[in-house]
Structures are given as C-alpha cells and as structure tokens.
Amino acid sequence: MSVSRSHRLFDLMQVLRRHRGTVAGLTLARELGVSLRTIRRDIVTLQAMGADIDGEPGVGYILQPGFLLPPLSFTEEEIQALVAGAQWVSRHTDDALAHAVQNALAKIGGVLPPDLRRGLDDNTFFVGRSEKGSSVLDLAQVRRAMREQRKIRITHADQSGAASERNIWPIMLGFIDSQRFIAGWCELQGDFRIFQADHVMTVSFLDDHYPGNRRQLVKEWRAQEKHPCKQRDCG
Question: Looking at the whole model, is its pTM more than 0.85?
Fold first, then answer.
C-alpha cells in the first residue's frame, strides 16, 4: 500500500471517529479533499481490513468503536515521552507544527486501548512556553523549502548590525532556549553557516532548487563540527 494511501486511510478513520454518528460520504470526501468514489473505495478497503463500518452509499457511514488500525503497543514510559515531546513542540516551535503534533496524538489516542489512552491526559509533565523572538521568517515555509530543497534569499544582520543579502540552502532548523536558527549553505561565504531567525530582516522563498541531497549536506555540515550549540550565529 502506498504511503499516501495509508495516510488517507488513517485520516478517514480519524474523521469517522470524530463524527461519532452517521456521516455522509460527501461530507467525508469534502473533509479529506478527495472524490466520493475514492471514499467508497477506501471504506471497502477498511472493511476488508476488519474495520466495523456500517452504512452504504447514499445513506452514510458510521464506525463502531474498538477497531485498531494498526495495532499499537506502548509502555507507560513511551506514552509519557510522547506527551512531553508533544508539549515541547506545541510551545516552542510554530503554529503549524503545534497543530500537527496535536493531530498526531489524537491519531495515537484513537488506536490505544483505554488503559493506555488515559496516559495521554496525565499531567505528569509541565513544559513552559518560550517567548519567541520577533522574526519575519515563517518556519512552516522554511520547512517546506527544506523538504523541496529550494533556496532562500535573506537579508541578515550580523552581530555588529551590518546587513548583507545571502542566498542560502536551508538544511536544518534549530531551537535553542527561546531562539530559532537556520543552518544552511551560504552561497556568499561558500560554506555552511548558522543564521539566527531574529537577525533575518527580509526573506524570499525562491523557486530555484539547490543541488545535492539535503541529508548528505547535513552529514557534511556535522562532519565540520559546526553545530548550533557551538556556533550560534553567522558573522
């Protein structure tokens, strides 16, 4: 089964769980951004996998409780680790990632047995919310640029306040204390550099792809021992 279809089936299960009662196929199609024909085909697939889904085309569908897709098993320590990690992401990154991690926890909660599901609501940890510095950077767009290996043009102020325009190849985001950093190859310097987000004055997301492989560039950067903890900002 392709990854994209697997994700769609997970999302379909999530929507069915959320509605609790009978939901029309057109409603499911609209929420998932697919055709009604795709919904009908995916319902048949889920039923064949053992999902207890009642209903039929033209009437609507309802998911009976108790179906696990796929079966998951976590220890209490693993559940606590997931919750603590989700709190950190929610309070220290950006809104898009915060929304994504809450959706992920909801999906996990939907396939956990009741005795473990309670661990998702256990207030064992408190992760404080960091004060995010002001920045023109949209971190969600930066992550997209990294996934698509696209260049970014920024105007960046160094420690003395002198500004320069750089084309960079973003390869990694860093979150240290309340600060955010972008690591990447700087075309101006011809080397890897780290840019503090609140020192970026302007930003443009370019259509140009940078060469090579992002993961390989990360390996090369780490091999040079240029880590955010050691070199926090570019000069």
Answer: no
